[in-house]
From TrEMBL:
CDD domains: MMP_ACEL2062. It comes from Brevibacterium yomogidense. This is Acetylglutamate kinase. Pfam families: Zincin_1. It comes from the Bacteria. The lineage of its organism: Bacteria, Bacillati, Actinomycetota, Actinomycetes, Micrococcales. Gene3D superfamilies: 3.30.2010.20.
């Protein structure tokens, strides 16, 4: 199958599989984080594969976060498809992008993610 022909249903199933395949321990301390898929990133960031929006755990004080909206991780379907060479590569990139954005939730910066191979 040509990666450009990936349906919404197949893409969603690849996202579901990536969540199931997350490395052990990655989600152990995640709480109140929602995962979304959007077709395109904001116009000022074309080609962006995913984004984390929230308050990283390293920046949270001892105060309560019970009335704070959930942190979000958004995957951008069309740039991920355009980046991928085939469906297997797309599945890999979805997993890498989710792990990358989860790492931002934990307060890990871009340079360190690249050092760890999740850039």
């Amino acid at each position: 199958m040509d990666v450009s022909e990936v349906s919404d249903e197949l893409f969603d199933s690849l996202v579901d599989q990536a969540v199931e395949d997350l490395p052990p321990g990655v989600v152990d301390h995640m709480d109140n984080v929602a995962l979304f898929v959007e077709p395109e990133p904001p116009a000022d960031t074309p080609g962006l594969l995913g984004i984390y929006d929230g308050i990283p755990l390293t920046e949270r004080g001892g105060g309560s976060f019970s009335f704070v909206p959930p942190d979000t991780i958004t995957l951008f379907k069309n740039p991920l498809i355009a980046f991928a060479e085939d469906v297997e590569h797309l599945a890999d990139e979805i997993l890498v992008t989710i792990v990358h954005e989860i790492a931002h939730h934990y307060g890990i910066e871009e340079d360190r993610l690249h050092e760890l191979g999740w850039g």
